[in-house]
Amino acid sequence: MSDPTSNGAPDDTPDDPGDVSGHVPTSPEAAPASGRVVHLPFPGVDNDYGLSPRPRVRARRVDPLLGLDLGGVVITRLIGEGGMGRVYEAHQANPARTVAVKVVRQGITTDQTMRRFEREAEFLSRLQHPAIARIHIVGTYASDLGDVPFYVMEYIPDARPITNYVHGRQLNLEARLTLFKQVCEAVAHGHDRGIVHRDLKPGNILIDGQGLPKIIDFGVARSMDSDLAITAMRTDTGQLVGTVQYMSPEQFGGDPEDLDSRCDIYSLGVVLYELVSGDMPYNVRRKPLHEASRVVCEQVPVPLRTLDRKIPKDVSAIADKCLQKDRRRRYHDAGHLSADLQRVLDGQPLEARPAGFLGWLARFGGRRKRVGARIGLLLLAAMIASTDHLGLAVQPARPPHDLVDFTVSF
Known about the structure:
Helix content is 37%, strand content 13%. The protein is built from 13 helices and nine strands. It has helices at residues 111-125, 162-169, 173-192, 220-224, 227-231, 261-277, 289-298, 304-307, 313-322, 334-346, 357-367, 369-393, 400-409; strands spanning 39-41, 73-81, 85-92, 97-104, 135-143, 146-154, 160-161, 205-207, 213-215. The strands form two sheets. The protein has a six-stranded mixed beta sheet, with helices on one face. A three-stranded antiparallel beta sheet has the order 7-8-9. α3 (173-192) runs antiparallel to α6 (261-277). The chain is globular, with a radius of gyration of 28 Å. Mean pLDDT is 73; it is low at 1-37, 39-59, 230-242, 355-364, 389-395 and 397-410.
């Protein structure tokens, strides 16, 4: 959810319980801290975090984390809240800069995930790509119920989820594909280093004030084993707290070790579908987990081309390949997806849909209309000539007696 006071901008983010954005960072001059894990004493707070109770204010509850100092990082305001925790704006003393702090919700961590959290902290901090929000510090603070993880991340002002941005700006298809390709290149950077995002959705794919993409929470879901831990959390009415709209079929299998880069490809396919059409491939909002799982694992999405005949076949083919239920039929990683998007922009044949000669001619003619028209005329003339020749060639030969009659008459 977005904070309506964030940057003075209206809250136009869709009702996505998993969207804890509303921030985005960029500070090239700010070299990250070492990715260290810090253990800080922490005073008791209210039961929202599962810690010791404290008196509540009837009219308005004061967030107990506001003003707290996490080792030189002072939390100043709440940005948003989602299934995995809360995101705050904060000020870091050294180096002096504004940062974002994600405090992981208690109840989705175990001793095993805490050990993994510490083991992967430094690894995650090494992701360096202009479209990936940097993780400056990964740490924990001590509570009455154990250590609570937090992340100090790059802060990105004036950020909007990618879907809100493209629809609000009414970008044309080429601009949308170009922006989405930049996102895929950033995801490929992680895939090349063995890091799978596992929670790609518009709320984690932000566009900053300059129109540049920035992916947040890269690797966080993996380190916290939070795929189903988040979505399994329910309200009193039985509804899911976390979003499952962008989860791949295998993420419902319950085995986090069985996931690879292709689960990100599926999620990117859902985002692409939404960017191009404005619709979701299927709607599992407000469905129980078992029903959402059935829809995602069994229901075949309507092809983009069927929704709108104006959508190019190649774009529809890319989305179809990303959304295959069998992950062996998807792109292997985001690098291959990005390469096919570039082929669309260049008018070249796709990996997703190899083109024959006529497909190549259509693309060639589309890019070079005058040359394409001349080639078309030449081909047409050649076809007519070959047809005439074929007609002569298949004429039945005269029987032998015709030849004899001709000879006699001579």
